[in-house]
Amino acid sequence: MLPSRALSAVSRLAGIDLARGLAVFGMFAAHLLVIDPFDPTQPLTWLDVVNGRSSILFATVAGVSIALMTGRAGSAGTQPLSGRSLTVARRRLAVRAAILWAIGMMLSATGVPVFVILQAYGILFLLALPLVRLSVRTLWMLAASIALVVPWVLPSIDTALLNAGEVGGDLVLLLGWQYPFPLWAAFMIAGLAAARSDLRAWRTQVVLVAAGATCAIVALAASAFSSAPRGSYLGRVLSDEAHSGGVFEAVGSGGFALAVIGLCLLICRTPMRVAVLPIRAVGAMPLTAYVGQIVAWGIWASLSLGDVHDLAGFRALQPFWPFVLATLVFCTAWAVFLGRGPLERALGFATRVVVPG
User: Fold this and answer.
1) At what angle do helices 181-196 and 53-69 cross, to 10 degrees?
2) What pLDDT is attached to residue 1?
3) C-alpha distances in angstroms, 283 versus 7, 18, 220, 287?
4) 73 has which bridge partners?
5) Cβ neighbours of residue 228 closer than 8 Å, sequence gap 6 or more
6) Residue 73 in 3-state DSSP?
7) Cα angle for residues 167, 150, 113 (degrees, 5° grid)
8) Element housing 77 (H / E)
9) What does DSSP assign to residue 72?
10) How far is CA 65 from CA 41, 61, 178, 193, 225, in A?
11) Which residues is 153 bridged to in the sheet?
12) Is the pLDDT of residue 340 over 70?
């Protein structure tokens, strides 16, 4: 295949690249913009939708990617591999998890004031290893159970980590606990279940939009009527606030992610597929875009401010649009002329070297 046709391959799910690209830019916005709390009467606050939901969309699409890496296209969706092929795929997934975790630790060491997601990403990849052969029904049930049950124990774990002092702080860093994997496994598993369905079928895409939007609306309505005091145990468990780990956040933001995936797949059934190619190019190389943002942030902040840790000072430089435009141009040019992203290519090469076959 010519590199210039890499994004047009019949086997590639363009809508997944689009959803992944939107998640990347959503995280850019959450990192780089000062966003006021959501107020339905103030359109300028609607951008608050990116807080928390972008990273959850990223994790959900990761589940889709895992399904594609451990499966083959079938008449009813991506069917899991078996035998020697599955063994190789699982081992490569484990190697990929270790490399992503290591990259996350290196990015955290830069001092750039963001909660790096890659440590949690690596752990989620490991958690997926025993799940890739499960049926679609089992995967959906498991995802729903985790989203409804785990928020009830997260406050106790958070308190234990806080009380553990420096040891707890180290564990938060090592585990990427800002994205607690016991709960975030629900989003990854939901993505895995979606991909084991037939994502190329318009019926599946419509169901994802409808079911996901229903979950988001129900969670929003339930949160509005909840009388649990904010800051109390029950308030934390039921919270819908970004990164709260509450039931309403898990259900609402998880549903939002599924709806976005379905909508992106529907969009890419139309001529809009060509118009959104630059965003798809970013989504085809998310590791390159994500790492590039943090590295560029560190360099820019060091040169301009002399302090990588100054979040308010860096945001005052208004870096969002320069980052977005630079990422769009770089990723589109690379995809058109060279194909697979540089870090994605390096990661794939490393996994094949460690686990040949």
Assistant:
1) 50
2) 42
3) 10, 6, 28, 9
4) 78
5) 234, 235, 237, 238
6) strand
7) 45
8) strand 77-80
9) E
10) 37, 6, 22, 11, 36
11) none
12) yes
Q: Kindly state the helix (H) or strand (E) to which residue 321 belongs, with its residue range.
A: helix 320-337
Give yes or no for a contact between 219 and 240, defined as CB atoms under 8 angstroms apart.
yes
Strand, helix or coil for residue 78: strand
Token reading at 224: 């509005």
- Residues in CB range of 96: below 8 A, 6 or more apart: 125, 347, 351
Tens of pLDDT, residues 284-315:
999 999 999 999 999 999 999 999 999 999 99
Site of tokens 């686990």: 355
Strand partners, 249: none
Closest listed residue to residue 277, CA positions, set 205, 333, 201 = 333
Question: Span 124-148, mean pLDDT?
Answer: 96
* Alpha-carbon span 188 to 59, nearest angstrom: 5
What H or E segment, with its residue span, contains residue 81?
A: none
pLDDT in tens, 201-227: 999 999 999 999 999 999 999 998 988
pLDDT number for residue 333 = 96
Residue ranges in the chain assigned as alpha helix (H): 14-32, 53-69, 83-109, 118-128, 136-149, 154-163, 166-175, 181-196, 202-225, 233-238, 247-267, 272-275, 277-284, 286-304, 311-316, 320-337, 342-354
Closest CA to 140 of 218, 254, 256: 254
Longest CA span, the chain: 58
What single-letter DSSP state applies at residue 113? S
Residue 223 half-sphere exposure, CB side, CA atoms within 13 Å? 24
Closest-CA residue to 300 (of 330, 267, 325, 322): 322
